[in-house]
Design a protein that fits this description.
135 residues, alpha+beta, 4 helices, 27% helix
Length: 135
């Protein structure tokens, strides 16, 4: 399993909304509460317009991650948007791996903790494998 998180804190609300609008039709959406619990109302699908209106740059919890061989997710990009009018609810935009480089370039994304922007997928996997314990 490999995950690379990218910093999106430099993006404005308008840029985050534009990102969602531009890439929405290229992927799929799901929803999840930050803390799963019995007291949460049922998750209802929101329209794209409702999601866009709820995206805010200053919301802690917005994040961008690239995943490969993750046990619970498809390979690719997942962008989490904490929705402002729906307490503790996130909308996740999932995109195929082929959009990662384009997103990095278009939104000046920098990985957190590791410098992987210039690696091929093969180089990235080799780098990740070197960091795994051998037991």
């Amino acid at each position: 399993m490999a995950e690379v998180f990218y910093d999106i804190t430099h993006l404005t609300t308008d840029e985050l909304r534009e990102l969602f609008t531009s890439y929405r039709k290229l992927g799929w959406i799901d929803y999840e509460y930050e803390v799963l619990g019995e007291n949460n109302p049922p998750v209802q699908k929101l329209s794209d317009a409702e999601i866009i209106l709820n995206i805010e740059a200053d919301k802690e919890g917005n994040y961008f991650v690239f995943m490969l061989n993750h046990e619970d997710e498809e390979d690719g990009v997942m962008i989490g948007f904490r929705l402002s009018y729906h307490e503790n609810l996130f909308a996740y935009l999932h995109l195929p791996p082929k959009y990662l480089k384009e997103l990095i370039d278009n939104y000046a994304l920098v990985s957190k903790g590791t410098n992987v922007e210039n690696l091929t997928v093969e180089q990235f996997l080799i780098k990740q494998a070197k960091d795994l314990p051998m037991n």
